[in-house]
Task: structure prediction
Amino acid sequence: MSCANEAAVAPSALAFDQVASSYDQLFTHTAVGWAQRRQVWRHLDAAFPPGNRILELNCGTGVDARFLANGGRFILACDASMRMLAVARSHAAEQNSAGNPEYLQLANEQLRELDGQAQFDGAFSNFSGVNCVADLAAIAVSLARLVRPGGKVLLCLWGRFCVGEIVWYLSHGRVRKALRRLSREASASLGGVEFRVHYHTVEQTEQAFAPWFLLKARHAIGLFVPPSYLERTIAGCPPILTILEFIDRLVAGWPLLRDAGDHVLLEFERCHR
Result:
């Protein structure tokens, strides 16, 4: 089923269409990619008990949907990119994923089209999918209708102040690149297609999700584990990456440090109102 006609497909969806066949090799199945994803999975596993019905936004190639389904959850995984969904369905069929995740072509901005469905026990968006959306309040309104009171919503956003990135680029004399996330938005490119990304602050996101959701916790993702573009630098040193991942687990929730990672994971709870 598709709720987006081709003429209305956003540039970000077209960009991910271009890299769908190589996305896992470039990002998912890398040492840094797995190290950061394992950090997110610990929180998803704790937030969504087996038997929960979960809505996933911007599911990409479906690796998170399969992880949760294999743990006994029921997943509706959505993405605006037709080709990313084709890869996700192919992987699910090859791996015979338990729970059979259901996939739907649906952009984050189109969540209102799910109105009328039975409520979900929770929802999540991993690795900066909602950074492609300018209006977070519209997503919050839709999720308020779709997620039951007491349900969790987890959003993994780009961090606005990534210490590792700032140090890396400043040490290479690239000041503009080092400070790029301090702007409100910027241009990005994938597969030769340009699109806009929005660097939402934690405070802006919290305000957009009030009064329907209460921010309960936040954790840095990729605090000492470096960003994905440093894969070649760190992949040849597995013991060092293991140590960095261990340190992240210990300190990623500490004040100040929790906002200093490559990403920040925000955990909201649907208010009883």
Residues 1-7 have pLDDT under 50 and may be disordered. The chain has eleven helices and nine strands. The longest helix spans residues 31-47. Residues 6-270 form a domain with the Rossmann fold fold (CATH 3.40.50.150).
